[in-house]
Automatic annotation (TrEMBL):
The gene is uvrC. It comes from the Bacteria. Interacts with UvrB in an incision complex. SUPFAM superfamilies: C-terminal UvrC-binding domain of UvrB, GIY-YIG endonuclease, RuvA domain 2-like. Belongs to the UvrC family. This is UvrABC system protein C. Keywords: Cytoplasm, DNA damage, DNA excision, DNA repair, Excision nuclease, SOS response. The UvrABC repair system catalyzes the recognition and processing of DNA lesions. UvrC both incises the 5' and 3' sides of the lesion. The N-terminal half is responsible for the 3' incision and the C-terminal half is responsible for the 5' incision. PROSITE patterns: GIY_YIG, UVR, UVRC. GO terms for cellular component: cytoplasm; excinuclease repair complex.
Length: 596
């Protein structure tokens, strides 16, 4: 049987075309187990028949069929190979973990008046993408900074075809130039967009120089309020620049790539150096199903990583790589549209930076080992069939039943996955405060979304036996059986399980306990932050909106300038009059309300 199969594959290989392209080996179930590229398909795949390496022997032994795609060029073959590896996730290829879970920054330069928005995937739509970013907070903070410093619009209007009748709140608080009303010309707006591009590429110095000129012009024209606003923008950018480590003094743009291998996983760290400053580091994990050599891992990473990312002028790697029958440098240069230098470190600074990257990776590895140890400990402790990779935690927060809220946090492989956090405003519980009923409401609402948001391996509720019983009632009522549900009580750190009378008490130095505490405390923090937000809004909004002329819109404008009612009380009449979007008469009414 095996001989016949081998003969059939051999015949198919012999009939492959002498063209560039991509080949795919399929197993007996039709699943793609390996994807490769070739300058000459027939020659490359024929070489498998005489290759004695364990990897090739394994591929041939497991394969039932071989298929191929012909491409017009070597470059197209490289791109198609990366696309197919991402699509099929073959077990015998080096695979960069899919980063669709990580958010991106999207600058919509395909629009007449671009915006900077959050995106979940790269699209071939003419926009400029940055990222992905492992932390969602980085994306939110960057968008907020861009609004504050550069005043790009954030609305969804299809300008200039459709537009609102009047400017939105962002214009009145100084976060938008209102291109929808023609308050800024198209040329001026695109100058702002160019500054945003420089900012996202880490080129702060040129923006600061430009802002200094702008500030001086305002000052010379005695427009001191405008000059002060520009000064604040300069300070923000200078603070950002000071946080970045200076690596070299020749304003180079380069990426440095370092590799660390352990337990069938390769961790790769990329340092992004822009204009001589280290602006960011990114860590990626590649799943290895076989003992790949280092140069093969680096080569595969480069091809997959730069498929949809900005390519710098220089890429520094920790060791030489073989190019097989493809010139990666040529491919990268063609894709960038300019020469790319792929090389080893050329000086002491670059060597030290790669050493620092290796230390970073080893520290990350130690963290992962500790977390992985905690997950293994949880598996043994609770007698689970598999290691619990995911944990979700729930908590309730209220002040004597007021502004009652619930929270759900989600941890994957021991680390927070904030994209799966959820907040719940308690709607249906009338007997407040009642933590048990509120927890049940939150769980019912959470379980309604189980198809879109699958349940974690461990469900953790903050509390003791009562909270656990309440939670179990909901699961039984809906007919969903969790893999494991537990309650963690804060007082003695007792772990309660269903159908067990006595709690489990772990040693204080237990990694498993520390992980469960982290989940519980994070759920508590997330619930408290939402509760405080609602409480603050309830206190501030009604008192201000009692004032004639202050509606929700002007309330928001005031809250952008003042963090509390006390600050508004202390404000002078002149200060209130100078707030954009607050008419003089309304400012007088606000002042008289608190000081009359």
């Amino acid at each position: 049987m095996m001989e016949e199969m081998y003969k059939r594959i051999k015949e198919k290989i012999e009939n492959l075309p002498d063209s560039p392209g991509v080949y795919l080996f399929n197993d007996y179930n039709g699943k793609v187990i390996y994807v490769g590229k070739a300058k000459n398909l027939r020659k490359r795949v024929m070489s498998y028949l005489t290759d004695d390496s364990p990897k090739v022997k394994y591929i041939l032994r497991k394969s039932k069929d071989v298929n191929y795609y012909v491409t017009d060029s070597e470059t197209e073959a490289l791109i198609l190979e990366s696309v197919l590896i991402k699509k099929y996730k073959p077990i015998m290829n080096v695979q960069l973990r899919d980063d669709k879970q990580y958010p991106l920054l999207k600058l919509t330069i395909n629009e007449e008046y671009p915006r900077l928005i959050k995106a979940r995937r790269f699209e071939d739509d003419g926009a400029k993408y940055f990222g992905p970013y492992p932390q969602s907070s980085t994306v939110r903070e960057t968008i907020s900074l861009v609004k504050k410093i550069f005043n790009l619009r954030s609305c969804n209007w299809n300008l200039p075809k459709s537009k609102p009748k009047r400017p939105c709140l962002n214009y009145y608080i100084g976060n938008c130039k209102a291109p929808c009303q023609g308050y800024v010309s198209k040329e001026e707006y695109w100058d702002m967009v160019k500054d945003v591009l420089s900012f996202l590429e880490g080129k702060y110095e040129r923006i600061i120089e430009k802002l200094f000129v702008e500030m001086k012009n305002y000052s010379d024209n005695l427009e001191f309020e405008k000059a002060a606003k520009v000064r604040d923008k300069i300070k923000t950018l200078q603070n950002l620049g000071e946080r970045q480590k200076i690596i070299s003094f020749n304003n180079e743009n380069k990426d440095l790539i370092q590799l660390y291998i352990e337990d069938h996983k390769a961790k790769i760290l990329v340092y992004l150096v822009r204009e001589g400053k280290l602006i960011e580091k990114r860590i990626f994990v590649l799943n290895l199903s076989y003992d790949f050599v280092k140069d093969e891992i680096i080569r595969a990473f480069i091809l997959q990583y730069y498929l949809n990312r900005e390519i710098p002028d220089i890429i520094i790697i920790p060791q030489e790589i073989s190019y097989e029958d493809f010139d990666i440098i040529k491919y990268l240069s063609e894709k960038k549209g300019a020469p790319v230098n792929l090389r080893l470190p050329a000086n002491e600074d670059e060597s030290k930076l790669l050493e620092m990257a290796l230390k970073d990776l080893s520290i990350e590895s130690l963290k992962s080992e500790k977390v992985w140890g905690a997950l293994v400990e949880l598996q043994k402790l609770f007698g689970l069939d598999d290691i619990p990779l995911s944990i979700e935690g729930f908590d309730i927060s209220n002040l004597q039943g007021k502004e009652a809220v619930g929270s759900k946090v989600f941890f994957f492989k021991g680390f927070p996955d904030k994209g799966r956090y959820r907040r719940y405003k308690i709607k249906y519980v009338e007997e407040l405060p009642n933590d048990f009923l509120m927890l049940q409401e939150v769980l019912r609402r959470r379980l309604k979304m189980i198809d879109e948001d699958p349940l974690a391996d461990i469900v953790l509720v903050d509390g003791g036996k009562g909270q656990l019983s309440s939670a179990m009632e909901v699961f039984n009522e809906i007919g969903i059986k969790p893999k494991l549900i537990i309650a963690l009580a804060k007082e003695n750190e007792e772990i309660f399980l269903p159908n067990r009378s006595k709690p489990i008490i772990l040693p204080k130095d237990s990694h498993a306990l520390h992980l469960l505490q982290h989940v519980r405390d994070e759920a508590h923090r997330f619930a408290i932050s939402y509760h405080r937000k609602l409480h603050r809004k309830k206190i501030l909004e009604p008192s201000l909106m009692k004032i004639s002329g202050v509606g929700r819109k002007r309330w928001k404008i005031l809250m952008e300038h003042f963090s509390s009612i006390e600050d508004i009380k202390k404000a002078s009449l002149e200060e209130l009059k100078n707030i954009p979007g607050i008419p003089e008469k309304v400012a007088e009414k606000i002042y008289m309300y608190f000081n009359g």
